[in-house]
C-alpha cells in the first residue's frame, strides 16, 4: 500500500523518478515561499502565544523599550512630515493621542525583548492634529509607507483592535465582556462565556485554461477604472478550500473547475481575513458572468497579462487599457507567478 501510494504521488509530476530520499516538502515546493512577496505577510515579532497571561500587557508596559502602534478604528496613526513616516510611539508620546491604555493589546516581542503593543485612540481624521496622519491599510501598502515588517505588525494590530471593538458584549447573554490574555480573549462578566479572535478564510484563485494558455480575470464595480483581478469569495461552513474555489468560480463566471492547487496566502486586515491563493484548472470555456457581482469576466492571454503587469502606475490611460491589482496584493502575485511558468508546448 505504501509503495502504491508513493507511486501515485510521483505520477503527478511527469518526468520525475521515485526517490525515497525525498519528502513531501521536496515536491515542487517553491523557495522562497510565494507568500513572502505579498503585503502584510512579514512580521518578525515573537508572539509568545503560549505565555499570554492576563497580566502580560501590564508587564509589557513597564518595559523601558515598549513601543505602541496607535489606531483610530482599524486605521493607523503615524507621525508624518515631508521626510519621515514613523508609526511607533513611546509611552510618553501617547498623551496627545487620547489612548485607551486599558484596552492595549500585546502584539509580541522584538529579538532584543522589547515589546510591541497596539492601542486604540480617540482621535479621528477630523480631530487628528499635526504632525500626525491617519492611514488605512490600502494607503499603507499601495504607497509603501512602511517597511514590510511594520506593515505586518499593522495587520496584526488592526485585526485585533477591530475584533476587540466588535465584541464588547456577550453573544449569549448580552453582558459586558472584558479583555484578557493580552487582547486575544474576551470573557463575559455575567456568564463567563469566552470568545477568541476570528480569521475569515477567503479563496482567491487564478483560473487557468491549460490547453489555450489563458487565465481568467474579472472586475468588480468598485475597482479602479480598467482594473482586472482574480476571482475570490469566502469559504463557507463545512466547505474545503478546493470546493470553495470550484463553487465561487462557477458562481461568478460559469466556468467549471477540475484540479485546484494551493499557491500562497496573505493576511488581509479588512478587517480580519486570510486570503488563500490558488490556481484552478478550467474544465469549460464559455463564460456566464454573475451580473450581480461583476462588471466583466474574460480570458486573458499571457501577452495581455504581461502587458498589464508592466503598467505599474495603477492608472488606466485609455478606456481600453487594463491594469492589474497593486503590487503586494496576492492577486498580483498569482498573475506574476503564472507568467513565470513555461508556456504549454
TrEMBL record:
InterPro entries the record matches: NAD-cap_RNA_hydrolase_NudC, NADH_PPase-like_N, NudC-like_C, NUDIX_hydrolase-like_dom_sf, NUDIX_hydrolase_CS, NUDIX_hydrolase_dom, Znr_NADH_PPase
Cofactor(s) recorded in Swiss-Prot or TrEMBL: Mg(2+); Zn(2+)
Output the SUPFAM superfamilies linked to this UniProt entry.
Nudix
BP terms from Gene Ontology: NAD+ catabolic process; NADP+ catabolic process
Keywords in UniProt for this one? Hydrolase, Magnesium, Metal-binding, NAD
Q: Which family does it belong to?
A: Belongs to the Nudix hydrolase family. NudC subfamily.
Annotated protein name in UniProt: NAD(+) diphosphatase
Amino acid at each position: 500500500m505504501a509503495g502504491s501510494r508513493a507511486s501515485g504521488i510521483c505520477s503527478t509530476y511527469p518526468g520525475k523518478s521515485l526517490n525515497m530520499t525525498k519528502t513531501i516538502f521536496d515536491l515542487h515546493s517553491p523557495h522562497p515561499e510565494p507568500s513572502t512577496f505579498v503585503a502584510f505577510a512579514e512580521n518578525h515579532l515573537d508572539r509568545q502565544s503560549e505565555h499570554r497571561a492576563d497580566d502580560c500587557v501590564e508587564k509589557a508596559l513597564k518595559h523601558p523599550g515598549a513601543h505602541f502602534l496607535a489606531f483610530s478604528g482599524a486605521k493607523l496613526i503615524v507621525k508624518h512630515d515631508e521626510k519621515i513616516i514613523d508609526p511607533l510611539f513611546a509611552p510618553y508620546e501617547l498623551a496627545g493621542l487620547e489612548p485607551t491604555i486599558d484596552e492595549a493589546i500585546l502584539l509580541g516581542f522584538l529579538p532584543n525583548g522589547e515589546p510591541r503593543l497596539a492601542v486604540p485612540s480617540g482621535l479621528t481624521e477630523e480631530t487628528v492634529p499635526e504632525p500626525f496622519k491617519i492611514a488605512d491599510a490600502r494607503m499603507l501598502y499601495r504607497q509603501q509607507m512602511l517597511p514590510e515588517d511594520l506593515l505586518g505588525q499593522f495587520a496584526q494590530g488592526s485585526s485585533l483592535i477591530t475584533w476587540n471593538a466588535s465584541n464588547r458584549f456577550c453573544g449569549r447573554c448580552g453582558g459586558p465582556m472584558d479583555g484578557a490574555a493580552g487582547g486575544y480573549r474576551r470573557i463575559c462578566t455575567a456568564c463567563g462565556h469566552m470568545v477568541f479572535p476570528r480569521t475569515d478564510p477567503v479563496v482567491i484563485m487564478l483560473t487557468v485554461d491549460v490547453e489555450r494558455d489563458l487565465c481568467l480575470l474579472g472586475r468588480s464595480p468598485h475597482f479602479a477604472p480598467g482594473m482586472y483581478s482574480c476571482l475570490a469569495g469566502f469559504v463557507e461552513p463545512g466547505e474545503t478550500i478546493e470546493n470553495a474555489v470550484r463553487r465561487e468560480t462557477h458562481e461568478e463566471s460559469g466556468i467549471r473547475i477540475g484540479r485546484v492547487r494551493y499557491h500562497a496566502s496573505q493576511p488581509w486586515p479588512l478587517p480580519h481575513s486570510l486570503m488563500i491563493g490558488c490556481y484552478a484548472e478550467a474544465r469549460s470555456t464559455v463564460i456566464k458572468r454573475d451580473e450581480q457581482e461583476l462588471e466583466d469576466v474574460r480570458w486573458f492571454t499571457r501577452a495581455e497579462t504581461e502587458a498589464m503587469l508592466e503598467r505599474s502606475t495603477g492608472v488606466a490611460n485609455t478606456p481600453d487599457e487594463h491594469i492589474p491589482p497593486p503590487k503586494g496584493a496576492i492577486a498580483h502575485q498569482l498573475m506574476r507567478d503564472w507568467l513565470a511558468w513555461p508556456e504549454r508546448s
